[in-house]
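User: I've been trying to design a sequence by hand for this structure and keep getting stuck. Would you show me what you'd pick, starting by listing the structure so we're on the same page?

Assistant: Good idea, let's start from the same input. This is the structure you sent:
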């Protein structure tokens, strides 16, 4: 009597389950990476309507002189410019007694984003709220 062996080992490997796992991991990392953003600055971006606020706000204006490649900083609309290293102490002086310290940044269209971010960093260091001013549409 001849006994046949039917249990042969197969050399094939199914990759379908491995690709499912890879796609699930990809979706997981994409979703979790958009939720985590620790270096974001909190900005209060105003709407472009003409609304008058009851609270007097401190403002920093950045003027760009494109022909010279220089910038001037003005606090509360003053015509006399302030040097960049003097802006933070002046803001600290103006906002020290405020229970909700907030200042607005008014920047020309030609001002590089680096200068605006420098002003935002001042707000972040001192835990001020920062408003980036826009013009009405």
């Amino acid at each position: 009597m001849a006994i046949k062996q039917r249990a042969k080992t197969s050399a094939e490997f199914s990759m379908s389950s491995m690709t499912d796992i890879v796609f699930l991991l990809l979706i997981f990392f994409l979703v979790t990476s958009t939720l985590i953003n620790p270096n974001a600055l909190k900005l209060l971006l105003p709407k472009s309507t003409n609304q008058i606020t009851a609270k007097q706000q401190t403002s920093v204006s950045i003027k760009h002189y494109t022909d010279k490649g220089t910038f001037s900083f003005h606090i509360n609309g003053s015509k006399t410019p302030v040097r960049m290293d003097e802006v933070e102490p002046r803001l600290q002086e103006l906002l020290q007694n405020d229970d909700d310290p907030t200042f607005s940044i008014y920047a020309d269209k030609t001002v590089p984003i680096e200068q605006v971010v420098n002003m935002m960093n001042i707000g972040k260091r001192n835990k001020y709220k920062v408003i980036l001013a826009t013009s009405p549409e």
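That's my pick for every position. To get oriented when you compare it with your attempt: Residues 58-132 form a domain with the Nucleotidyltransferase; domain 5 fold (CATH 3.30.420.270). Confidence is low (pLDDT under 50) at residues 38-47.
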